[in-house]
Amino acid sequence: MTVFSAYSDDDILADLKAQVADGAVLTDQATLQKQSFNSNASGGRR
Amino acid sequence: MRRGGDGSGLARAVVEVQSVADIQGVLKVARKYHLPVIPQTTATSTVIGSDGIAGGLILSTRKMAQILEISKDDSLAVVQPGVVNGDLDQAARKQGLFYAPDPASKPFSSIGGNVSTNAGGMSTVRYGATKDNVLGLKVVLADGRKVTLGGRTLKQAFGYDLTQLFVGAEGTLGIVYEITVKLMPIPLGTSIMGLAFFKDMAQLAQGVTAIRMSGVYPTMLEALDGNTIGALDKYEKTHYADKSGAMLIFRLDGSSDANIQVLKDLLAKYDAQDVQVTADEDEQAQLIQLRRDMLPAVFAGQNHLMEDMALPLSQLAPMMAYIQQVGHDLGVTIYTAGHAGDGNVHPTLVWPKDQPEVPGAVLEALRRIFWKTLELGGTISGEHAVGMMKNQWNQPELDDNVDYLQHQLKTLLDPMNLLNPKRKIN
Predict the structure, then answer these.
(1) ipTM of the predicted structure?
(2) Residues B168, B281: one domain?
(3) CB atoms within 10 A of CB B184
(4) Binning pLDDT at 50, 70 and 90, where does residue B391 land?
(5) SS3 assignment, position B6
(6) pLDDT at B47
(7) What is the pLDDT of residues A17-40, one digit of tens each?
(8) B99 and B158 share a domain?
(9) Are both B133 and B223 inside the same structural domain?
(10) Among candidates B14, B22, B43 on the partner chain, residue whose Cβ is nearest the Cβ of A32
(11) DSSP letter string over B377-407?
(12) What is the pLDDT of residues B37-95, one digit of tens each?
């Protein structure tokens, strides 16, 4: 989004985790990949 | 439609929220750092509606999946967005009720997603789409405010109808965290289902229009063209394609003998062949499964784009003929099926699995089909929503003034453009 952000990824994720008390913040690559590219638009999974 | 080439991208985090406070927290962080938020539940969008956006936050309500209430007296249910459509229906049936909207994804798509896309299904012809079955919503707005829209009444005429504004909004206006839906009493009497075969889809469409207007109120009028029947034959080891070029699967709930006879007479009038009718529940389940198996049968081993237009009923037959002509002219294989009773057509355009890019002929076929749909007074999105697949068509579908008004509404409710940006309208 931003070429040179005032905040690092770690800053943002720390803030996010502080705001999400009941749920879970997932950042592992496998989850990010699976949930980011799950489209059924072409050659879908079912 | 290749990964990364469609504007989707790797999210920064997936947040599985479990409370309203979690949702408000995610939005607070999104506002602070100007991050896109992608609402997601079971992620079954067919229009790139809930894929990640680079650096964004996927806000998953998948784990907010409780049925909070089923009220037999008020014939409604209150659910969290992650409840699976089929699970709600099964729970309602234990109390003599059912949840009517039945998209093909019923076994695995969520009520939240159904609301987001205004999902339809096979029984929309009788019971309406999701929008016709939502009574109320609770929503967190982009600025963190909670709003309660609609309620528990079957009628409501107070204020602007904001409930309907959020149904089909594809998560671009707020995060839905509670949904009140209508439940219907299970019809009394005999339900019948059946098959009928026609010369082609145009003739089938004429028959469907007559049945629709006859007053027998069918619950299902599903059409499959010759290519689709052929694919099903391969998948199911059946021989339906030997019979004709188009198949109709029909259903009547709680019908009288007189209504069933009207249906049979109309099928005969429109030259339907080999009409089969059953009241047996197991055989009916097999027919529904046959319809549901259409998707894996067509998709097997091929790349595909499944489209979703809805036409005025009077234009269904010309549209069916046009799709066939476009496939012939451009050398594109098209499997056409759909919910013929409500004018909803799903042509699936396919190409070889070893070609990752969508062939130019397929895109041209789609372009022609979309323009023809609009020319005939239809819409290019009947029940699958817009996502990133069709938002380039806003201007021709909506016209300038309505397109502008839609952006004004978006700006009013989400001035920082954080909620599912690039989807639906921009």
Answers:
(1) 0.87
(2) no
(3) 16
(4) confident
(5) coil
(6) 84
(7) 999 999 999 999 999 999 998 766
(8) yes
(9) no
(10) B14
(11) T-BS-SSS--TTTSGGGHHHHH-HHHHHHHH
(12) 999 998 888 888 888 899 999 999 999 999 999 999 999 999 999 999 999 999 999 99
- Helix B360-375 × helix B316-330 angle, to 10°: 160
| The length of chain B, given as a count of residues | 426
Q: Check residue B359 and report its DSSP letter.
A: P
With CA atoms as reference, the chain B residue closest to A38 would be: B51
Q: What is the C-alpha to C-alpha distance for residues A42 and A34, in angstroms, rounded to an integer?
A: 15
Structural domain total, chain B: 2
CB contact under 8 A, B29 and A19: yes
Tell me which chain B residues have a C-beta less than 8 angstroms from the C-beta of A14. none
Check CB contact under 8 Å for B15 and A22.
Answer: no
> Which residue did the predictor score with more confidence, A3 or B294?
B294
* Same domain, residue pair B320 and B275: yes
Q: CB–CB of B33 and A33 under 8 A?
A: no
What is the rounded distance in angstroms from the CA atom of residue B154 to the CA atom of residue B325? 45
Rounded to whole angstroms, what are the CA distances from B247 to B152, B209, B287, B317, B330? 40, 15, 12, 14, 25
> Both B101 and B133 in a single domain?
yes
Nearest CA-CA distance, residue A1 and chain B, Å: 7
Measured at the CA of B103, the angle between CA B15 and CA B135, to 5 degrees, comes to 75
How far, rounded to the nearest angstrom, does the alpha carbon of residue B180 sit from its chain's CA centroid? 19
CB atoms B35 and A1 under 8 Å: yes
Chosen domain end from B152, B186, B220: B186
**A9 touches B: beta carbon within 8 Å:** yes
Decide: B365 and B327 in contact? Cβ < 8 Å. Answer: yes
Q: Which domain holds residue B12?
A: 1-186
Report CB contact under 8 Å: A19, B12.
no
Contacts of B82 (CB under 8 A, 6+ apart): B41, B42, B61, B62, B63, B64, B65, B110, B111, B112
The mean pLDDT of B306-328, rounded to a whole number, is 94
The residue of chain A nearest to residue B37, with distances taken between CA atoms, is: A36
Q: What is the pLDDT confidence band of residue B1, given thresholds at 50, 70 and 90? A: very low
Q: Same domain, yes or no, for B204 and B328?
A: yes
